[in-house]
Amino acid sequence: MNLVRASIYTAAATAARLLAGLVVIKLVAWFAGPEGVGKLGQFMSLMSLLAVLAGGGISSGVVKYVAEYRHDPRRLRRLLGAALWYALGASLVMGGLTLVFSPQIAQWLLGDLRYTSLIRVLAFAQLGIALANYILAVINGFMDVRRLALVQVGGSILNVAMVAWLSQWLHLYGALLALVLGQALWLAVGWPAWRRSPYFRRSMLRMRFDREMVAKLAVFSTMTLTSALLSPLVNIAIRDHLALQFGWEQVGYWQAVSKVSDAYLLFVTTAISAYYLPRLASVNDRAGLALEFRHAYRFFLPLVVLAALAIYAMRDWVTLALFNADFAPANGLYGPQLIGDVIKVASFVLSYLMLAKAMTRLFIISECVFAMSYLALVYVFVARFGLVGAVYGFAVNYTLYLVFNVVVARRYLGGLKQWSAQYP
What we know:
This protein is mainly alpha-helical and 424 residues long. Helices cover 86% and strands 0% of the residues.
């Protein structure tokens, strides 16, 4: 399947996920205003963190090694048995810890103990989320983009239905609860889709400890967990800083613009992870990798530039449609945010090389350095420019990250060229 066809399928899946997310944002804006949207960001940061931790952060590793071993049944069986053992073990540990510390998490994150029961539901949902992540990673590793898209569309439809149902009863609390349950519901769609696939084997469901495969997956777990921990924690720190400086209403404006970016960038980032990562993992020669980079840039970059320009031109309407008139001050934040989005996608195309080729140490160091630089830049620019400084910091940080990834990619491709010359 080529990049264009894969992108069509992922675009359909992303549209369904986007609709589900926009329904929740609209409901929260309706029930709780800018302050509620600001706190929604905190809760969703926790959800994204636990969603990755639920499966031990091995999804990228499963995608990579399934793509490599799909024609080697013995190694594939070993890999998937170890992956299932790893994912379920991690989900039980994370679920238990979340359950034990649910009051502290609710108070620290949302400043309200009434959300303790919601954190407890999230703790129990960890097992279902881990299994859903495992199934999606296997389907993705086999490059079955069509089936992956169907699962995502079905899961998103169930999520929207649950949001509409629970919000009628429980309003804001119901919308947040639906977010939690919706992630676990993906299992109800993913399992039958995977079971009917031509590559499904019952042996893929046999858990086993395999030292070699667990070590391989642990490398990706380390990389993914580093990213999963740092990004939400930095965003939580930024929200807390903005709330301290300007109040939660101003945080809501910043969060609104960030959510708009997250929404339209889903089309690009989903296509990158569904098609691009397994492709990079399966290509080992310099010419092939360079060709994949060129194809990605020719397709993804014009797409995100056009989307960013369209959103900027219609920013007043976008804010009113997705939120309400109370969010009008957010319109002044779109310019630097959208510029940062374009640079972010340009850097992501190259950064996936570190994941695909398991550059563990470099990936972890870069994640730590650029997470801290983002936080530092936000503090500096907010002190100088006010709330808009937060989006200035976002754009500048991704510019630095892009430069870093250009250097990494050039050195890696240069190393392959020297190796090919020595061993023709």
